Every structure is written in C-alpha cells, then in structure tokens.
Amino acid sequence: MQEMEGGEGRRAGGERSSRLSALQEQLVWSLLGSGLSKELLIQAMGDLERERASAGAEKMDRADGESSEEGDMDNPPPIFHELERLPPEEAARQRAEVDQLLQEDPWHMAKMIKSYMQQHNLPQREVVESTGLNQSHLSQHLNKGTPMKNQKRAALYSWYVKKKAEINQQFTNASRGVVSGEESGDDVRKGRRNRFKWGPASQQILFQAYERQKNPSKEEREGLVEECNRAECLQRGVSPSQLAGLGSNLVTEVRVYNWFANRRKEEAFRHKLALDVPYSSQSAPSTGQTLTSSPSPVLKYSQPVLKYNQSVVCESLGTVRSSSGEDQGGGGRLASPVQLEPSHTLLDTHHHKPASGGGSLPPVSTLTSLHGVSGSSAAPPGLIMASLPSVMSLGDSSLFIGLTSSQPQTVPVINNIGGGFTTLQPISFQQQLHTSPQQPITQQFQSHICPSSFMATMAQLPCHMYSKADLSSYTSSLLSQAMVIADSNSIGTLTNLTSVRQILTSDPEGHSDTPIEEESLHLQSTSPEPVSSGSLELYPQTHTSETHSSHLLSSPPGDIDPYMPTQMVSTAQ
Amino acid sequence: MTKKIFLSHLEHLLPMMRNAQWVEVVGRDAIYKEFLFKDFNQTFGFMSRVALQAEKMDHHPEWFNVYNKVQITLSTHECGGLSQRDITLATFIDQASVL
Questions:
Q1: What top-level class of enzyme does the UniProt entry assign (chain B) (predicted)?
Q2: Does A10 contact B69 at a Cβ distance shorter than 8 Å?
C-alpha cells in the first residue's frame, strides 16, 4: 500500500516550526533524537556554515568576480556572522523576514532602519563591523538612498532583524546585560560595549536642569539619571522600567556628572573667548585699522609667533621675512584645528577663533560645535584680507613695508601683494629693498616676478593653512576669489609692468620714478578693462567679472541634492 | 569478535522477533522486515534516525527504500549470521518506526 501524498508532511506537535519543510523537521528531529543536544547542534551548525562560507569565498576569488544580482546565496559575505542564532526556528524566522524586507522598497527600508538606529542610538560602526559593509556606502544608502546591491542589503537587513530580536530580548529579560551569548564575538572588536552616546531626549532634560543649576548634587544627579533613562525608554517605545534594553546607552550618575562638568568647562571657555571679542570687532571692519593697530591681546594669542617690530622698516622686513615662515606655521597651527569653512573666513572679515587660543584646550564638545557657538563672535584674525589700492604705489616703500610689519601677524596675510611679496618671495623682496630708492624699475621687474609666484604660492597657501579642510572645494573657491580680488589689485602691478616696458623702450635711463608712480596711481582708478591680455600671461582672463571665476568654483559637496531614489531607475531590482 | 546468538537464546528471541513482524530470511541467517510510512518525509526521517543509531552502534542494516517503503535485512557479516547487535538494532528500529 503506497500512498502518494504530497510533500506536506505531518507537523508533529502543531506549529512548532513554521518555515521548516517536513523533511527538514524530520531530520532535525532525528538529530536531536540521536543524542545530540540542542546547544551542540546549534554550535555545530554554526561551525559548518562558516566552513561552507569560507569555502564558497575561496571559490569566489578564483572565479570571475562579476557582480550579478542573482546568486545571492552563491556568494554569502563571509564576514557577516549571521550564524549565531539560538533556535533553528528563530533562524528561519529571521531569514524569512529578511527576504520580505528585500522585496520592499529599498529607500523605505533605509528610512526605517535609520530611524530605528536613531531611536536606539546605535552607532553605524556597529553595523559596519557586523555586516562588513563599507561605512561610507552604508551611510550614503541610509541617508541619501544611494543604491545598494541585494546581497549587501540582505546583510544589512539581517543585522537589523537580529538586532531587533536582541533588543527585544534585552528588554524582556529580567537580568541586565544578557545579550544572548553573541556579545562574545563583539568583545574583541570594541572593548566590551558600544561607546555611550547621549540621546536627544536626555540632552533636553539635562540642559533644562543645567539652566536651573549648574552644579547638581549627587541626589539631583541621580534624579536626572532616572529621568533620562525613562525618557530614553519612552523614545524607544518601551516601558520605562526595562532599562536593560538601553544597553550601552544606559544613563548613569557618572555620565550625568561628566556631562555637567563638561558643560561648565565649556561655558568657562566661551566666557573666556568672549573677553577677547572687543579687540577683534574693531579690526573687523577694515583692514586699514588692522594694519595700523597692534593691540596686545592679539599677541597673547599668537604666542608661538614672533612679534613684529613696527619702527624700523628694513629691519622689520627681515623680521617679517624670518617670521613669516613661522607665522604661516603658527597661523596654520592656529587655524587648522578649527573646523571652520575657510572660504567663509577668507571672504568675511569676521574672524573665527582658533580653538587653541590662550594655551588652554576648550572642553571636548566645543571643538565640534565651535562654529555653531562662536560663529557670530569676532575673534583674532584668522586671515587678514588686505585691500590693496592704497598700497599700489610701489614707490612708497615705507607704507608698503609698513603694511606687513604693522600687523601683529598672527596669520599670514593673503592677497596683500606688497605683503604677499614679502611673505612669499622674501629673497627677491629684500633685494628690492636695498635698491629701492634708486631703482624702481628693478622693483617693478621683481614685482613682475612675484605675481606669478604669488599665484603659485597662493595656491599653496590655502593648503598650508587648511590642511585639514576640504581642499578640493575650498581651494578652488579660494583661488577664484583671490583671483577676483587680485584682478583689480594686481592690475596696477601689471599695468605698471606694461608701463615699465614702455618706459624702458622709450627711456632707458630709468629715471622715470615719477611717471611710474603717476601711472600707477592713475591706473588704479581705471577699470581693469584696458589691460591687454598679451602681457597678462598670468591672468589670461582676469578682467572678467566674477561670473567667470565663479565657474571655477567646484560645487561644494554639501550642495549635492539628496539622492532621490524614486527618480532613479533601480537596477538592483 | 561478534558471536552468533547462542542457539538456546535464539529460541527465545526469535519468537519475540516474529511477534514484532521480523521474519527469518530463507537460506540465510538473517531477519527481515518491511516498513511502510505515510510519505517520503516520514520515511526518510525514520531512516535518518536508524542511520544515526547504526553509526553509533557501528552496525549497519541492509536496506532498500522506495518512497515510503523500507525493507530492512539485519545480519552480522563477521559471524555470518545473527548476533546480539542485530537484535538490539531491530528493537531500536521498531521503536523508531512508531515515533
């Protein structure tokens, strides 16, 4: 008697394993019945799967590494340890959920996962470590919807499903810190736990408390601990008594104590910065004032930089020269720790404070929030934009030199052609100076040399100053801006150049001190138009307006519109 | 060295086996039984259990399987006939078949 039944199989004991085929059920049951314990079986399963995965990975390496959308199961990412799962039913359930999520819209899933991570304050690093996904790719996928291949999404969703299960379990477990044995793998990676991070809800509570009292007692702190934890639980949609689910983001008195301590330090630092505001606000409006004044507070800031001698012209040049190198270094040092936007600084005469002013380090969070906090407060000059028309008369060397020396020189002066020469081309300049009263022509020539190197050095300067900033976008913007400004200012030089040539041809004796001066003065006031492009090897298109140079600006990364996946044809599917 | 079942013992045991539907094979010192299950899954589950036990005992059956039918012959090769192991395995097989 042979009944040809379909392959449904009988379910022993009801709905025990919903996703296991009958035969699988039978086999598993057989295994369990053969004296194999559940734990042993699961462990063995994990080991075997890992072995198979690594064998698969080897095959992958040898084979052609084409990225096909199929073959999700052919090349399982060996790094992703989705192996440790307690009961096989749970494993099957999770895999089923992952499959389901894979069918959904990737962008919706990304939003869901991102909000889940925010809700539970989970660091991206954790996802990256356990899935092997690239962090940049992951971030872009979650925030901007950058497409992600199915297999990788599967890894992500698997982590998500697993994490949800973990957290649910944490919340329901009476004991704290029960992480279902999977933490043992993570221990190696990140100490024991993820780094604690304040949630927005807690921060709100703390700030309110801070307003009331900056120095809470232990009892008050403990009260805040309770409040914060309650808020965090509510944010996660869990009963406030289930603290275990917060995991590494559980708020404790120590953390609250540290938070208050950091805020107090922060405020003290801000207060200290505010004290220096009066100086910088007077220098902000015009650089002329900056040039002539040399208030002492600034010197305080520029401690590592040599002080400049205003009185002696020639000597100060030497000082300027030797200090300029350090100055750049010092300015660089001062500016580079500040994570500010250099282009903003360059154009704006409002100056941002260097983070390391005064020799004391500000509290930890200040550095990250500095431009938010002190954006409006003036500070010792990060950069000094010298407007040049007043300097154009090159014959007037005293003013010219005075331009550089009168500044306390905390930072290099950009686009100060006179100063530029000083700072950037020390050698030629010094020669100039020695001969300055007698040979304006030489001066002119050497000033001719300088612009080319000026531009070259200009290019270097931003790099020097903002080694930590995003050079690609900022450098071009800096350059273009500098070019724009340089245009109007260097026209004088360049037209002087042409005039020099003219003079030379017509009057080789070189007694044309006055004519040059006159011309330069005259030319100053003219529009840049008359400059012939022939002599302007350096700035072939300098006389054009900003619209031209604006095309040199590369679009800053922040302006890229968020990637709209709905408009995108998803090849992944 | 596995020993054949002592004849006197066999006199007890064989009836027991016969009661359990194990029949003696003609021309050979072995016992045989056929099993029928509802479908292949059940059958193979049964076979898996038997297989695991066989491995554990280091004593393997001769068997044939078609879909939901299993025909098993038990004999010990070393001693050329029935041994205690066959009896033990037969008992186990019977238990497994009703699980």
A1: lyase
A2: no
Number of helical (H) and strand (E) elements in chain B, helices listed first: 3, 4
**CB crowding B55-84: b at 16 or more within 10 Å, else e:** eeeebebebeeeebebebbbbbeebebbbb
Q: Residue ranges of the domains in chain B?
A: 7-97
A11 interfaces chain B, CB cutoff of 8 Å: no
User: CA-CA distance, B77 to B30, in Å (whole number)?
Assistant: 10
Take residue A254 and report the two structure tokens written for it.
């120590």
Q: How far is B8 from chain A (nearest CA, A)?
A: 33
B7-97 is classed CATH 3.30.1360.20? yes
Q: How far is A144 from chain B (nearest CA, A)?
A: 48
> Which of A5, A25, A36, A37 has the highest number of chain B CBs within 10 A, making it the mutation to test binding with B?
A5
Return the pLDDT at A246: 83
Name which of B42, B52, B53 is nearest A26 (Cβ-Cβ): B42
Which one of B11, B34, B55, B62 is the catalytic residue?
Answer: B55
Give this prediction's pTM.
Answer: 0.34
The sign one gets for the Cα dihedral A290, A291, A296, A298 is: positive
Contact A23 B41 (CB under 8 A): yes
Sign of CA dihedral A183, A186, A187, A192: negative
The predicted structure's pLDDT at residue A493: 46
